[in-house]
Amino acid sequence: KNNEERRGFEAEVSRLLKLMVHSVYSDRDIFLRELVSNACDACDKLRYEALTKPELQAGEGDFAIHISIDKKASILRISDNGIGMDHDDLINHLGTIARSGTAAFLEKVSGDQKPDLSLIGQFGVGFYSSFMVADSVRVISRKAGSADAWEWESDGEGSYVMRPASRDQHGTSIDVHLKADAKEYLEPSRLRTILQRYSDHISVPIYLDDGDPKSDQTADETPKPVNDGSALWVRPKSDITPDLYTAFYQHVAHAHDEPALVLHTKAEGVISYTALLFIPQNRPMDLFDPARKPRVKLYVKRVFISDDNDELLPGYLRFFKGVVDSEDLSLNISREMLQQNPVVRRIRKALTNKALAELQKTADKDSDRYGKIWDAFGAVLKEGLYEDADRRPALLKLARFRSTHADGLISLADYLGRMKDNQKAIYYVTGNDLAAVRRSPQLEGFRARDVEVLLLCDPVDEFWLSAVNAYEDKPFKSITRGGSDLKDLEPKDPTADAETKDKDASDRHDAAIDSLITALKSLLGTQISDVRSSDRLTQTAACLVAEDNGLDLHLERILRQHQQ
Ligand code: ADP
Ligand code: MG
């Protein structure tokens, strides 16, 4: 035992495992999906490596995933002939969590109160989910190109053991030693059902070796895979059920929710590509994490090339996940070359247009569904308003807002339709949260005149508003700016306004205001640039405004915070 090495899990893994082991997550079946998904990824990776180093896969048969059952020993084994892991890979991949958003996830589920288990599903615990059904897990792996194999074993209680092992060919076998209450996963029919449900789209054939000599396959018959084994995105749309799309989405995007939108499109002609893209229902926890990896995988003629490329979609569409497969790229394209590649650039352009068109179609057809997408990802889409000037008109059409005049979301077209006769601008107010901006005293004069104001609460709003001047020739104007003049607009109820019909009273009133203004100016001195009487308030006595050509108040506050 002296070549054994015991190591502790990274603290985050331990916390995650405790959650897995001690909380009964309702859908334990997903552990099999996760292990098969990893096996498929491993085959994809080796297929790519072997493009330039064919010796890595020399003499091996086709890629395959084998699932076998040892009833006596209570072991379920998932085996692949993919890329495999060496000593350091095992430590780095199965002892730590590299995924961004982990800290945020653990924050949400930790604490004394019962963890929200739906979050586990959403976060996706991958390999570690095997500990839901296992009292121990043993991984034997040999990396392609290496002669050494290593064994990793753990009971999920804080540490794991590494020891040298042997394995005939490259790849990985995972032995799941099933808990007493998880013996159902030794039943071939149960496994077959799960595999068909979750793994039919897997593009590597999966063989179930049920250990039963009386089963329908005799030794000399070629065994039949449980799954279809072909890439889902090349199958005809009519053959793909919604469930199949969902299962594929969960695999390819490492996601655990349902897609809110499926975009399956095939282009032929000047450039040819197939794209199968999804919008998740939930905001991933790392949406605004700068270290976040894009989740669109690039395939060339069905061969996986890369999953960490920014080239296929612009940043403001980073919430799309899925695959793009092209016939027009060379299999030898290196990941580094993607950026400069003209074909990639053309695909990106076409795909961006396609994605925006699909969003518009959804907005037109099903505003409820679109509203949910907007609530989750609108803040990201709005980045496009200043990043992508060419598509600004399309993005402004897609933009939705909260406003003083509606409970739900409105479009700019809705706003224009409700503008008053003399109204020259689209008014908005920005702030940190909706409840606070709704209370802005600056809104009072607009309310009194029934003038609609957009309520903007995303940090990105300040940025696009500084780049986008107008929509259909109507300028955007902050109500906290000095010149938001309401004089041209009729009050809804004239008595609610400060103006009075009596001329004498009005003169006396003006004189009183003038002396108040003088007094305030001498009191506040250089801290302010001006004191003015205004039409914007009806109930509050005074409010701060920004100068017409100065910064918006909220923006000024943001900038001040950042300078500290
Ligand atoms: P994810 O698949 O989202 O990266 P997992 O927890 O499922 O997360 O797996 C963690 C990592 O372990 C994978 O990214 C991969 O590097 C490695 N891994 C897991 N299973 C295998 C396997 N069968 N073959 C090779 N590498 C694997
Ligand atoms: Mg995985």
TrEMBL record:
Homodimer. Residues 1-335 are annotated as: A. The keyword ATP-binding applies. Molecular chaperone. Has ATPase activity. One of its GO terms (cellular component) is cytoplasm. This is Chaperone protein HtpG. Residues 27-182 form the Histidine kinase/HSP90-like ATPase domain. Residues 211-223, 484-507 have a biased composition (Basic and acidic residues). One of its GO terms (molecular function) is ATP binding. InterPro entries: HATPase_C_sf (IPR036890), HATPase_dom (IPR003594), Heat_shock_protein_90_CS (IPR019805), HSP90_C (IPR037196), Hsp90_fam (IPR001404), Hsp90_N (IPR020575), Ribosomal_Su5_D2-typ_SF (IPR020568). ATP binds at residues 34, 38, 80, 85, 100-101, 122-127, 172, 335. The lineage of its organism: Bacteria, Pseudomonadati, Pseudomonadota, Alphaproteobacteria, Iodidimonadales. The keyword Nucleotide-binding applies. It comes from Iodidimonas nitroreducens. Residues 209-228, 482-507 are annotated as: Disordered. Keywords: ATP-binding, Chaperone, Cytoplasm, Nucleotide-binding, Stress response. Belongs to the heat shock protein 90 family. The gene is htpG. It is found in: Cytoplasm.
